[in-house]
Write a structure and sequence with these properties.
The protein has helices at 3-9, 33-48, 53-63, 77-82, 86-92, 95-106; strands at 13-15, 69-71. It is mainly alpha-helical and 111 residues long. Helix 2 packs across helix 3 (53-63), helix 2 runs antiparallel to helix 6 (95-106) and helix 3 (53-63) packs across helix 5.
Length: 111
Amino acid sequence: MSIVEGLEKIQIQAWGSLANGIYSGRTLENPSEAYLKTKQLIEEMAENKETTLEAIVLGWLMKHPAMIQPVIGTANEKRILNCQDAARQSALMTREEWYSLYVASRGQLMP
């Protein structure tokens, strides 16, 4: 089975899709430049769109061409509520916004 066939037949799930909260409150001791740029961009997008950081992160995953299905893996009520706007953010996210987050997180342009 090729990757393309797999993407057409298999739903991809992303476990730990909120990255243990590193984009929504938890701090890193020695953050990379890519992490700092990504976090700043997520914060700006959330503020401009009047939503949560979690909704932006999950919306980005849901907008991925592979149609990733995020698994949030939390029982924390506040965190669950912070995720409720993700589908809407995915629908509203432009290609430019999606790509800018992709590039920021990789620290380089897409090949």
